What we know:
Layout: H1 9-23, H2 33-44, E1 51-57, E2 61-62, E3 65-66, E4 70-79, E5 85-86, E6 103-108, H3 109-112, E7 116-117, E8 139-140, H4 143-153, E9 159-169, E10 172-180, E11 187-193, H5 200-217, E12 225-231, H6 235-251, E13 252-258, E14 268-270, H7 278-290, E15 295-297, H8 306-309, E16 318-322, H9 344-363, E17 366-369, H10 391-403, E18 406-410, H11 411-418, H12 423-435, E19 439-441
Parallel strand pairs: 7-8, 11-12, 11-13, 13-16, 14-15
Antiparallel strand pairs: 1-10, 2-3, 4-5, 4-9, 6-9, 10-12, 14-16, 17-18, 17-19
Helix pairs in contact: 1-5, 1-9, 5-9, 7-9
Amino acid sequence: xxxxxxxxxxxYGNMMLRLIERLFPIPRSLTGEGNRQTLRIMQESLPCxxxxxxxxxxxxxxxxxxxxxxxxxxxxxxxxxxxxxxxxYQTNNLHLxxxxxxxxxxxxxxxxxxYLYTLESQPNAIPYVTSxxxxxxxxxxxxxxFLRLKARFGNSQKTFHVCIQSTLTEGAMSYGEIxxxxxxxKEIVFSTYICHPQMVNNELSGIAIAFALAKILSQRxxxxxxxxxxxxxxxxSIYYLSRHLESLQRNCIAxxxxxxxxxxxxxxxxxxxxxxxxxxxxxxHVLTHYYPNSKEYSYLERGSDERQYCAPGxxxxxxxxxxxxxxTYPEYHTSLDDLSLVSAESLGESLEYVFxxxxxxxxxxxxxNTILCEPQLGKRGLYPTLSTKDSINQIKDMRxxxxxxxxxxxxxxxxxxCGGNGLLESQQWIAQFVAHGLLKKQQKKGKKCLKKL
Length: 453
């Protein structure tokens, strides 16, 4: 089993950056050819892990929702009265209001203005705006560009030509899934989304981390099985849960939404509604021990697919892994969320964060002490042969770990009680205790996983 030291996260960072650069220009939404193209590119690049692509027909019911019409765009732009092309979809996908209906018309500026969307607080940014479930059309542009147009044409009757060559048809929603079989059926699930156009940290960082994680996991022996999902946000996770909820409730021990996880700001987690499931606990442990400047958010501040995975009646053990939380960083949902926000280094660090969580989950278990009172560690080579006043400090964490293994607390809980080193630094002690017969792993009935530490 590969450890953290054997993985060159910077090399994976370079690979992820190349993938992001390739995917960045592709238009994505809830549905459409851009989503299929994105999934096919990853499918071709993952020879070690089979990425399956699924198509769900428009109109298919999913709990209280149904799959929308498929939306594709051939072209979209506005021509000013002077013949200048603005809000060009080919230049930036964000210029077109998401799910705009096909439109061809001529409007003066005052008539056009209600269909223009800007962000006054960030005057140089193109905002990301959608209208998935109400038919309309519109364009997005920077506030400064809007002011220039208004100054030139605000009182003119000259017309702008609006052209939106889009289609809304009875098509399908696409999503991708990777399943990597481990030593047991119990599984760890990662979910990310594929529906945001030309935004790097908000969209492509989660895709890239999930992609790299699949590469790593498909080349190693895994204690647990892994399921990695690439879904359109909200409708995708709702549909998936409507078809696979019982299986997930039976097998998923921990799940994580990956979003906004590529920039170089502080690491963070958004906890589940429960706030203390296994996913919450392991994320909190990793952040506490390895990322001292990290942040934690409650479910009250939800906004991504943790809304679905942690909903009442669903109650899966999920939380959301991030760096800058969605909605809190200035570039969020604008054209400023571009390639400048990520680097090979920041992506590699984020992958390491996620992989630390995987390793802690694999290491976590319940152990039972096999000897009454303190064991004689010296004869087993586990105690300093020279006793000084510093001896107790040298082995304090090791002894605490041993003495709290009571067959009831798992290693995460013991770490929370005792403090000291993180669980990843304790794995050598656990292995030695087991090898010397001082500890035995407790197996829950029906949940046996064969791989050792």
